[in-house]
Predict the structure.
Amino acid sequence: MAPSSAPFAVELRDVRFSWPGQARPVLDIAHLSIRPGERVFISGPSGSGKSTLLGLIAGILRPGCGHIVVNGAALHAMGASARDRFRGAEIGFIFQQFNLIPYLSMLENVLIPCRLSARRQARASRQAGSPREAAARLLERLDLAPALWERPVTRLSAGQQQRVAAARALIGAPPLLIADEPSSALDADRRDIFLELLLAECALAGSSLLFVSHDGALAKAFSTTLRLNDLNAAAREESA
Amino acid sequence: MRRFFYLMSLARKSAWNRRGTLSLVVLCIALSTLLLLGIERIRNQIRENFVQAVSGVDLVVGARGGDIPLMLYAVFHLGGATNGMGWESARRIAAHRDVAWTIPLSLGDSHNGHPVVATTPDFFDHYRFRAGRRIEFAQGRAFDALFDVVVGAEVARKAGYRIGSSLVLRHGNSDVRLAEHSDKPFTVTGILAPTGTPVDRALYISLAAMEAIHIDWQGGAPIPGFQVRADQVGKFDLTPKSITALLVGLKSRSRVFALQRELGAWKEEALMGVMPGVAMDRLWRMLDIGERVLLLVSALVTLTGLAGLASAILAGLGERRRELAILRSAGARPLDILFLLACEGVLLVFAGIAAGLLCLVLLLFAIGPILASRYGIVLYFSCPAREEWLLLGGIVVAGSLASLIPAWRAYRISLSDGLTLST
């Protein structure tokens, strides 16, 4: 997939965010940018504002001030509904665990973004002929046997579940993939296998990857490593 | 649009996934529907049955008293016996210049729990039901000899009577075996075609026969030491002294009020003339308050069911926050979440209504024959009437409103949770 023509996949400038009713910002980031196709590892202890940062980039939260541009779209200037639509079309998301909807089959879980976003569906169709075919290819490459596809997802192992989540995040080749501690529920062997597959698929789709974890040992696989506490002026003030 | 269909299919799968819990909610709504519609249907069809049971009778004449008890006893054979009226009065009314025909009725005895009606063959000529339909004989003919009896369709069907069958009447409605007129058996000479009215459950004998079986009775028991054999009764005068009521048809309906006034001023005997339609209207008005209370109670039951629906979905929301966050991460708006949850509620309401209607049909099939044979009330299932559509619509509207409660809660949750998967 051709990366976006925008110079950055993600660009934050002078972004401050505070929760309603609180004077102190939890995030105060002067500058953060991710190039198209770049793999960025952001580390930070829990409570350092990782989830808030991801919420801002995913368009769930809106900054108090500053600019957030994702794949050329100015999220800070968009309405809530437009940001939701944008997220569905342009961003793949992987949670730490329990990523799957229990009453849907594996295939249906992967197809959720295509069902909710016409742009995502169109891209998946362009890629593989149909969204279903795109999902099938991803699941195959992620080593999930076709026998499992139509079955309920409740009996899958943690590793299998995360691979299904990765397929869902990757379907329709979104320009940006956000992974929030996706491997911390896996044991060491599974974690490495998962990371390898995820990186390979991101490269294939041409997606930028924003990978957040408290586990610094994973950082070596990434082209860029950032520490949130270094980026975040609000955290520096606090420790000072 | 495509998105809405997708969310609807998600709602359906989600509900199916939790069918164990939700089936109880559906059952509640089904019972509410059954109650609301069942009461409405039975109410309407009982009225219809009553209204259709007698047609073309301008006045029901009897001893002065309550008009509704007279109607119920004389026409529908329900309730307690009313006072009798003198035969002499009946003859004079029959000879009145405005009167086209009369049917005397004398009740009191029974057979297998069915009322025995003593009357004249005029009954078969003049009695009308359901917008002017005549009574017809399925087999045989009217009574002619003294101990002839004509039986209604249901009586014949239940006991398997044929022309020529012999049967014994019982005094009053008692179950006491001693009170049988076993010394004077009757012979079936006619079986009536089904009418769907109380006629089906009655037996018809002549007024003279009614006198004959009571010659050696007094005060509800045989007179000790005095017995008249069946072949001896012809020697007695079998003209009745009194009857229960007289059905009157007029030459011109416009004379009905004049005759009613005349009967009210009757000097020889305290009589009254009741217009069947007016008495039935009064009866419905009396029952109305009870029906309203029933309707109110079933409406409350429905509300309880819908409150159960809202709370069942609300209770499930806690463990579904994850599901909502996943959908949000894939581009679902908070309004989509609202729609998803509302859909689920409405889906359950429709499932409940469908189950309730099914129960109603099955129930009507199951109890319909019992009601028909025991009370002569014919129930049937037909396409819902206007009031029933209104009730159904009311359930759907109230159910949708109830569904908005958990939907709104989910909307708030998805706004505040965002993408955080609370554990």
About this structure: The mean pLDDT of chain A is 86.
